[in-house]
Amino acid sequence: MVRRLAAVGYYVLLPNLYYRAGRDTIFGSDVGETGSPEHTRMRAVRTTMTIPPMMQDVAAMLAFVERQDAVMPGAVGCHGYCMSGPYALAAAARYPDRIAAAASFYGTWLVSEAEESPHRSLGKVTGELYIACAEHDALAPLPMVEELQGWFKQAGVAGEIEMYPEVHHGFAFPQRWCYDKPAAERHWERLLALYRRRLHAR
Fold it and tell me: Of 1.40.20.10, 3.40.50.1820, 3.40.630.30, 3.40.50.360, which CATH number belongs to 75-198?
């Protein structure tokens, strides 16, 4: 997926979100099976990965790209899948002068009681957002999506929330059981169109 972005001219960073558990952290093949030992181990790490420390990581990445001769000066974009969807939206709000485009694909917990819930900071975003949701998603159920749409409209942020019908959480990943090629290709079209509008590629 990184190669696909790089192939059209973008400088791409792919962070290891689990590095705090050890830079060589690897989960077994049953990590996606709820209740499995690997899933339990992953969840124990996942619960510590809240938005504030993730924003520290984003700050470090922004500082890094500014030092790279291969990177064109100007705005950057970010996007995330599943648990990193909220991070992308939060980053757009935290660094509005740097992040001109952000996307979330079947992002989880986009509306929650947490103080740092992404829906609370939509009004701080000055760039464009694209939020894609799967029709069948226990981690982002339809009532949450409807509530998010209300917050989105109230904030007046540029962009859109799009529902992908008849697909499940994780539809963009070819390795997943729920992979849906038409929906996955649409997500690429929407992401690249967003970046073309807001960013520069070499």
Answer: 3.40.50.1820
Q: Quick one: angle between helices 51-66 and 85-94, nearest 10?
A: 70
Beta strands in 11-119 (DSSP E): 76-81, 99-105
Other CB atoms within 10 A of residue 47 CB: 8
Pull the structure tokens for residue 138: 């226990």
Q: How confident is the model at residue 155 (pLDDT cuts 50, 70, 90)?
A: very high
Look up residue 9 and give its two tokens.
């001219």
Residue with tokens 């500014």: 66
pLDDT in tens, 132-146: 999 999 999 999 999
Backbone angles phi, psi at 91, to 5 degrees: -65, -40
Closest CA to 106 of 179, 33, 27, 26: 179
Residue 160 contacts residue 145 (beta carbons within 8 Å): no
Q: Which structure tokens are listed for 79? A: 């996007």
Q: How is the chain split into domains, by residue range?
A: 75-198
SS3 97: coil
Q: What is residue 113's three-state secondary structure?
A: coil
The token pair at 148 is 């998010």
Q: Alpha carbon 40 to chain centroid distance?
A: 22
Q: Residue 3 to residues 6, 13, 33, 47, 154: CA-CA distances in angstroms? A: 5, 11, 28, 29, 36
